[in-house]
């Protein structure tokens, strides 16, 4: 399998559909069009109605063909799109005919976009934006992906790299000072100022509390509380289905059970957890550990209290303080006179108060998502490189500050440039390309 094979894929969704799009990129298009399309190779960029035949001259379908010659195409190569009727038999006949040609094969996931990247049409963050916009389910995900695929992240990272290249040039001048053991302060002071400004900017970007990644991957709500408080009952109600087992026996839930919802315009994962209590039971104890871990990682912790018997609750100040909202459940039953302070009172079983609670959850998540404007980190990959870049800059600054060596500082700045370059994909990315593009769907 050669990288320069002509690739072919169904770019549109699952058949049957009114129309399907079959996409080809590579040199074999000329030959294929000549042999299989009654119109021959269509005039560039002009949708052309044509009959499409197999190698024996049998009609596959009639549809439109669109030829986009390289380099002004998505992949930078010659590309051809065929718009046919989107039935399974048409698609099967069309694709099996196309891949009979020796240099034509099915595309790997993301291979069209990978070729666009390799042709220098887009950088890696823009390629990720393409993958994200296809997956986007919420308006917020779509907006973030669109910003990324139109170069919103590229701009920021390129700006930082340009600043660093300037700083590197200044340090190199200092390194070259002939008569000194090390650079004089007059030359290092302005460099330190510039470095500090950049350090501040990277720290600010990293201080985004992960909002960009959460908009993409989902925010997390953890339901925690004493055994039998009604956590699983609430989860099922929020899910609108029987996701978790509910019984009257305390200690029913052990594993973490997650459901996915869109709340406040964001994807949200809601976790039901094991009731928190001291227990001899090994399995339940593991459940409690998992519950605590999930709670620690959540964006919103809902502490549920059994309103009929709050004394059963693990209402230690530890859990109360960690909770973002305290919910009293079983409002339909005889409520204890001795209720703790709470935010909402509901009956998870009957549904009373649940709509208000849901609205509050949505509001909380929406506010959290809006708390950072235009985050420049949308994946763990970006964060890891930015963290490394930042520590290089701090090392460079300290080396200049302490006068331990402009040479060392220059090396650290070079490393920082590499880390930022890896985010946009200009350097050292061979190892991540596979990971990035394999997440794509086929045909993109
Ligand atoms: N009266 C009343 N009973 C409820 C309500 N919600 C849950 N229950 C009951 O309380 C019992 C425990 O409910 P679960 O949802 O299993 O409670 P849990 O907090 O998940 O319990 P564990 O998983 O064991 O920690 C069940 O018998 C439920 O039917 C409610 O709003 N009102
Ligand atoms: K239970
Ligand atoms: Mg449960």
The named CATH superfamily of the largest domain: P-loop containing nucleotide triphosphate hydrolases
| Ligands bound to this protein structure | guanosine-5'-triphosphate, potassium ion, magnesium ion
Number of alpha- plus pi-helical segments: 15
Q: Structural class, judged by helices and strands?
A: alpha/beta
Side-by-side strand order of the widest sheet: 3-4-5-2-1-6
Order of helices and strands: EEHEEEHEHHHHHHEHEEHEHEEHHHH
| CATH arch. level architecture of the largest domain | 3-Layer(aba) Sandwich
Give start-end ranges of low-pLDDT stretches.
none
What is the total number of structural domains?
Answer: 3
Count every beta strand, where a strand is a DSSP E run of 2 or more residues: 12
Q: What is the overall silhouette?
A: flat
Subunit arrangement of the protein:
single chain
- Span of the ends, CA to CA: 19 Å
Q: Largest sheet, described in full?
A: 6 strands, mixed
CATH topology descriptor of the largest domain: Rossmann fold
Give me the Rg, rounded. 29 Å
Q: Please report which band the strand proportion falls in: under 5%, 5-15%, 15-25%, 25-35%, 35-45% or over 45%.
A: 15-25%
What is the overall pLDDT average?
93
Helix content: 40-55%
Describe, in plain words, how this protein is organized in 3D.
The strands form two sheets. The protein has a six-stranded mixed β-sheet with strand order 3-4-5-2-1-6. The chain has a six-stranded mixed β-sheet with strand order 8-9-7-10-11-12, with helices on both faces. The protein is built from 15 helices and twelve strands. The radius of gyration is 29 Å and the shape is flat. Helix 4 packs antiparallel against helix 5 (139-149) and helix 6 (152-175) runs antiparallel to helix 7 (185-206). It folds into three domains: 6-107, Gyrase A, domain 2; 126-208 and 377-438, Up-down Bundle (Four Helix Bundle (Hemerythrin (Met), subunit A)), CATH 1.20.120.430; 217-370, P-loop containing nucleotide triphosphate hydrolases (Rossmann fold). 42% of the residues are buried. Strand 10, helix 11 and strand 11 form a beta-alpha-beta unit. It has helices at residues 29-36, 88-98, 111-118, 124-135, 139-149, 152-175, 185-206, 211-217, 231-239, 282-297, 317-322, 354-370, 380-401, 406-424, 430-438; strands spanning 6-10, 17-25, 48-53, 59-68, 79-86, 104-106, 219-225, 257-263, 266-272, 300-306, 325-329, 344-345. By secondary structure, it is of the alpha/beta class. Magnesium ion binds at residues 231-232, 244, 252-253, 272.
């Amino acid at each position: 399998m050669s990288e320069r094979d002509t690739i072919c894929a169904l770019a549109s969704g699952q058949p049957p559909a009114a129309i399907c799009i079959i996409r080809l990129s590579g040199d074999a298009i000329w030959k294929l069009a000549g042999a299989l399309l009654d119109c021959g190779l269509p005039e560039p960029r002009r949708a052309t109605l044509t009959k499409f035949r197999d190698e024996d001259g049998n009609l596959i379908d009639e549809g439109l063909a669109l030829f986009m010659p390289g380099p002004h195409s998505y992949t930078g190569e010659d590309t051809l799109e065929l718009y046919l009727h989107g039935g399974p038999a048409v698609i099967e006949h069309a694709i099996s005919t196309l891949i009979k040609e020796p240099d034509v094969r099915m595309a790997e996931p993301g291979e069209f976009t990978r070729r666009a990247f390799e042709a220098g049409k887009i950088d890696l963050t823009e390629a990720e934006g393409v993958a994200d916009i296809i997956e986007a389910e919420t308006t917020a995900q779509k907006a973030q992906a669109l910003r990324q695929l139109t170069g919103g992240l590229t701009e920021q990272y390129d700006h930082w790299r340009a600043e660093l290249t300037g700083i590197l040039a200044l340090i190199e001048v200092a390194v070259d000072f002939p008569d000194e053991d090390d650079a004089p302060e007059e030359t290092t002071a302005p460099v330190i100022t510039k470095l500090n400004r950049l350090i501040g900017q990277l720290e600010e970007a990293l201080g985004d509390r992960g909002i960009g990644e959460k908009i993409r991957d989902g925010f997390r709500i953890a339901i925690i509380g004493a055994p039998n408080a009604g956590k699983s009952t609430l989860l099922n109600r929020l899910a609108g289905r029987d996701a978790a087992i509910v019984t009257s026996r305390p200690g029913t839930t052990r594993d973490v059970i997650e459901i996915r919802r869109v709340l406040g315009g964001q994807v949200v994962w809601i976790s039901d957890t094991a009731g928190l209590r001291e227990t001899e039971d090994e399995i339940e104890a593991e459940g409690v550990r998992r519950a605590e871990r999930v709670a620690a990682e959540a964006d919103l912790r809902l502490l549920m209290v059994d309103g009929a018997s709050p004394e059963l609750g693990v209402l230690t100040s530890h859990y109360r303080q960690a909770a973002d909202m305290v919910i009293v459940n079983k409002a339909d039953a005889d409520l204890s006179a001795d209720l703790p302070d709470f935010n909402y009172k509901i009956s998870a079983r009957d549904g009373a108060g649940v709509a208000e609670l849901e609205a509050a959850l949505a509001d909380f998540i929406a506010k959290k998502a809006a708390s950072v404007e235009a985050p420049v980190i949308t994946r763990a990959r970006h964060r890891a490189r930015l963290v490394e870049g930042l520590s290089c800059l701090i090392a460079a600054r300290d080396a200049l500050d302490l006068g331990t060596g402009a040479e060392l500082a220059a090396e650290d700045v070079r490393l920082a440039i590499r880390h930022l370059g890896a985010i946009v994909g200009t350097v050292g990315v061979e190892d991540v390309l596979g990971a990035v593009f394999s997440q794509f769907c086929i045909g993109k």
